[in-house]
Amino acid sequence: MSKARLFSPEFVLLLECCRWNFAASVNDRPTPPAAIDWAKLVQLARFHRVQALVWNALPKDSVPPEARPLAADAQLIAANNLAIARECAGLQRNLTDHGLLHLFVKGLTVGALAYRSPMLKMGWDIDLLIDPDDLAAVAELLEDRGYGLRLPARRRDLERWHAGSKESVWSQPNGLHLELHTRLTDNESLIPTVDVSSPIRVVQLSHDLALPTLGPEELFAYLAVHGASSAWFRLKWISDFAALIECRTEIEMGELYRRSQKLGAGRSAGQALLLADRLFGSLEGAPRLRAELETEPMTRVLVSGAMRMIGRRPVDPTDEWFGTFAIHWTQFLLLPGLRFKTGELRRQAMGLMRERLI
After folding, report:
1. Which of 193, 198, 256, 276 is the least crowded, having the fewest Cβ atoms under 10 Å away?
2. Within a domain: residue 33?
3. Shortest CA distance to 45 belongs to which of 23, 26, 21, 61?
4. Using one digit for the tens of pLDDT, what is the confidence trace for 144-181?
5. What secondary structure letter does DSSP report for 191?
6. CA-CA distance, 52 to 356, in Å (whole number)?
7. Cα(143)–Cα(318) distance, rounded to whole angstroms?
8. If pLDDT is split at 50, 70 and 90, which confidence band does 321 have?
9. 357 lies in a domain?
10. Is the residue at 356 inside a domain?
11. Which residues form the domain of 332?
C-alpha cells in the first residue's frame, strides 16, 4: 500500500523533506502539492521534531506565510545545537583530563553522521554515556560545571537511582539539559554488552570539535532498541535510523542486522529496518533481507504497531488516557521467551512505582 493512501499529504511531505536531508541522499528537492494544509504541516513537523529538516528541504519560493514558523524553529534549533556543541567540547576536555571514559550518543554525533548538517537535527539535551564505576566522579564534575540534579531529586539517591534506571537528568540554569547514562537500556537483557567500552568512532562536527560515539554496528543496534522502546511514535527517530543506512548495500545491511542479533537487539532491529522501508524505501535494494524479516510474525506485529503510532494524531501519548499502552505492550515483544517478558513486567511495574514516588 502506498504512503499516499496510508498517510495525509502533509505527513508524506514530511517524509520527503526528511529524506532529502539524508547525508547520502540523491533525491530531488520535494515539491509541495497544491492542496497542502500548511498549518497542519507545521503542527506535524513540530510534533515529530523535524522542523529544521523540513524547512531546509522546502523550496522557499513556494512556501506561504503560514509555513514561516518553521524558519524560526529552524533558527532556534541551530542556535541550541551550537550551544550544545560548545558544552560538549567543554565536557570532553574535562572528562578526558580526569581520565573518565565517555561517549556522546544520539544528538549531534548522530546528526553529523545522518544528515548534511548536524545542526538540523533537533535535540534538547546531551546524552552522555559513562562507566557506572565513574558515576560519583562524573557527578562531581557536572556540579563543578554548574549542573544541578533534576532526576532523581536528591543527590544522595543517585547511586540507587542508577541501579534501576539507565540515566539521571541534569540541567544548567541556562536551560541546557544532560542525560547521564550508565547503561543504554532500562531492560538489561537488550544490547547488554553495548557500553562505554564498546568499539567507537570519532565524529568530526567542525574543524576543532570531534566527539566519540558508538561504532557503526553498536550504533545501529542501539538506535533500533531506542526507537522501539517508544514504539517509534516520533518521525525523527526513524528518520535518523533510515538516514544512517541510506545507500547501504544489501550485504552491508545484512551484516549490520546479523551483528545486532549477536549484540542482543532482538526484534527491534528487524522492526527498524522494515519501518524504515515502509516510510523511506530503505530496503528497495535489499529484497532478500526484506523477505527474510517479513517472515517473522512478531516483527510484523511490531512494525504494524509502530506504523499506527507514527501515523496517529500529533498528541504526545502521555497526554492521553491509555496513550502509552501501545508502547508498553510492544516492549514485551522485543525479545522472545518468558524470562524476558517476566523481567519486562517487573521493570515496568517498578517504573510505575518510581514515578509515583517522584
Report:
1. 193
2. yes
3. 21
4. 999 999 999 999 999 999 998 999 999 999 889 999 99
5. S
6. 36
7. 31
8. confident
9. no
10. no
11. 3-351
Residue 2's Cβ-count burial label (10 Å; 0-12, 13-18, 19+) is: exposed
In the numeric block, the cell 563543578 is attached to 144
Alpha helices in the chain (DSSP H): 3-6, 9-20, 38-48, 51-57, 69-97, 107-114, 135-144, 158-164, 216-228, 235-245, 250-263, 267-280, 287-294, 297-311, 325-331, 338-357
Residue 358 lies in a domain: no
> How far is CA 201 from each of CA 113, 190, 197, rounded to the nearest angstrom?
11, 22, 12
**Cβ distance 167 to 179 under 8 Å?**
yes
Task: Tell which phi-psi region holds residue 312, choosing left (phi > 0), alpha (psi between -120 and 50) or beta.
Answer: beta
Residue 197 region, left (φ>0) first, then alpha (ψ -120 to 50), else beta? Answer: alpha
Beta bridge partners of 200: 214
- φ/ψ of 71, rounded to 5, equals -65, -45
State the Cα–Cα distance between residues 236 and 152, nearest whole angstrom.
27
Q: List Cα–Cα distances, 197 to 25, 100, 110, 122, 226, in angstroms.
A: 32, 11, 18, 27, 19
Question: How many whole angstroms separate alpha carbon 334 and alpha carbon 148?
Answer: 34
* CA–CA dist 262, 194 (Å, integer): 11
Q: Which of 258, 264, 263 has its CA nearest to residue 273?
A: 258
pLDDT score of 16 more than 70: yes
Residue with cell 570531534: 210
Alpha carbons 244 and 218: distance in angstroms, whole number: 13
